[in-house]
Amino acid sequence: MGRLSNGSVLALYIVNFIVLVYMMQIFLSKKNLSMKEIAYMYKKLKSIVVIMLSILIFVFTASTCYGNSAEPPSILIIVPNPPSDLEISIDTGNTYVEANKVDKVVVEKVIERYYIFYSSKLGNTRDYVFKITTGDDSYEIAIEKPLKSYNNIYTLNLKNRTLTPGKLLSRSILLVLTRLILTLMIEGIIFWLFGFRNKDYWIAFFIINIITQGALNIWINGFTPIESYLILNLVAAEILVFIAEIKAFLTVIKSCRWHTVLYVLTANLVSFIAGSYMITFLPI
After folding, report:
1. Which residue has the higher pLDDT, 43 or 1?
2. Looking at the whole model, is its pTM more than 0.90?
3. How far is CA 229 from CA 5, 10, 150, 239, in A?
């Protein structure tokens, strides 16, 4: 039997969580249950909770190992769809120092590669001249001295042979929209399972989540692609999102206040787990 991928593990967790919520909904909606029915429901719920906790531990262990694996870079160069033999080095005066490489793999394909130059290896570099080598082709690109000591990000355009400061706007928009749409899908399913059918509630759902989750994902986009402690920052941000959404939803949905609070808690917990995986799976 093959080993489950992280994506399969996350999907299994979310499915189990949704089943748990759905069963709780059924349990709470019924009255005058027999002791046999209560015992059966309790047994099923307990089994699902055990499975969920096991999966949760696995996912967070994997995420933590990934998150703490890198030190802050001095210069990081993003290369979209890089050729396998691409090498980047910098002229330090006496010799060329090659960059450390980190691949971002999605569906077994390298969609981005990060070439990282740590400050400890740059020494007293004055002229920032990078040597780009792929196959039999080799050329140099010079840039001005970076303004920061750490987290200087550039994007390499192999076709135009240019190094542009920062991340590409098109890349940022695509990634923010991808994470936002996936989050809306997950939270929308949970919203429906909690029995919200009113059209006005759904309009409020989209407005509130586009604002809160959109702001969250734009904030995430401001981090470096190999941010070491993004998971911890995400925890703090999710707490603020939870508080904001609680206030917003309770303003719109006047009835069933505890039901609404339970929805917001459930939706944000599931989206946090999904988001924790997405930031290790998708580029930042």
Report:
1. 43
2. no
3. 23, 20, 15, 16
